[in-house]
Amino acid sequence: MAKIQMKNAIAELDGDEMTRVLWKVIKEELLLPYVDLKTEYYDLGLKSRDDSDDKITYEAAEAIKRLHVGVKCATITSNQARVEEYHLKKLTPSPNGIIRAELDGTVFREPIFVNNVHGTVSCWKKPIVLGRHAYGDVYKNCEIKCPTAGKAELVFTGTDGKEIRKTIMDMKGPGIIQGIHNLDESIENFAKCCFTYAANKKLCVWFGAKDTISKIYDGNFKEIFQRVFDQDFKKQFDDAGIEYFYTLIDDAVARVMRSEGGFMWATKNYDGDVMSDMIASACGSLAMMTSVLVSPDGNFEYEASHGTVQKHYYRYLKGEKTSTNPVATIFAWTGALAKRGELDENKELVDFAKCLEKATLQTIEEGYMTGDIARIASPKAKKILNSWEYIAAIKERIR
Ligand code: NAP
Ligand code: MG
What we know:
Blueprint: E1 4-5, E2 10-14, H1 17-31, E3 35-36, E4 39-43, H2 46-51, H3 55-67, E5 69-72, H4 80-85, H5 95-103, E6 106-111, E7 129-133, E8 142-146, E9 150-157, E10 163-171, E11 175-179, H6 184-201, E12 205-209, H7 217-240, E13 244-248, H8 249-257, E14 264-267, H9 269-282, E15 289-294, E16 300-304, H10 310-317, H11 327-343, H12 347-365, E17 368-369, H13 371-374, E18 383-384, H14 387-398
Parallel strand pairs: 1-3, 2-4, 2-5, 5-16, 7-14, 12-13, 12-14, 17-18
Antiparallel strand pairs: 6-7, 6-15, 8-11, 9-10, 15-16
Magnesium ion is lined by residues 273, 277.
């Protein structure tokens, strides 16, 4: 069979640890035999980011903007332990944080359903699409550990030179303070991305924040969402029979837990970080979820939402063939290839991506799967496979 040709390249962002190991296997076994893969490769492994003082991460973000499609492997966000483990020059910032800020996008995450893995929340019959704002808040924070008692203030100096000053706290002893921000433009883009994505999929949109406590900050999110909806989307939603509603974040969580799913939950950056992991594990496994970053000017970055599966990697280094689930990473590739195919009007490429997704899920539905989901599979798994065996089983089905 002749390999499928690609017209334009995608930005390929390699990563760390177990996911980096699987990245290579997925490419060699499931992609390269069938597709004449065109990628611009960026090594976002921790050492390479540190060596380049993060220049490589900014270059990768630029490439996504230029090519409009990227695929990213999970990467380590460094902490002190990693600085020692990898002999780093310094603590590097989160590469996801850098890319999300560069693209100013919204991350959409959706659980992947198979008919023999039932999540722990029995009332969820349909996937919940989570729309996570990917700019600002605590991910672009500024913190001080205050060594003594003192006065903490919030100061804003406008471009016109005018100053606004408020006291945060007259601190009676040592403590901590943190400054966070967001931009109206980014929040508007976030709202537009969510409403557009939901309208395409005919899903209602729920948005939750804490405007009762954070009257100005979260209040601003609430106001902008409502304004964008009323101005640009209300009619479209009415016509499609779908709705938008705002509620407090704690009420949203309570409603989500007793819902049957099938809607979009728009969340602020931190809420989305935490809640997408909750939804993914409740649906079976962190690896049974797709994740795509969509920027308002039409750039797409596909990734797995889980991390580098560090514990499995250490076992792999000791010689174990681990049963790490590659589904989310495979779906990052299929998402990127399908989007590339769609933008380039390359039907063969789109069809290949769909075929690979089908083979990946069919393998599980026929009873062959990795340990994380075998734990909760019903009927019971016929065989628990390691990652290499599972990928080989997918390959058999592609053929
Ligand atoms: P993690 O890599 O998501 O793994 C946490 C645990 O979840 C694993 O130990 C494993 O549980 C289970 N798990 C996650 N993915 C799995 C998969 N594909 N197959 C089977 N089990 C899976 O989170 P972490 O260990 O907290 O973080 C490791 C590194 O990833 C950190 O350095 C962090 O900075 C980074 N990280 C990166 C991203 C990203 O790039 N998008 C996101 C989150 C974290 P068991 O051990 O019980 O099998
Ligand atoms: Mg998270």
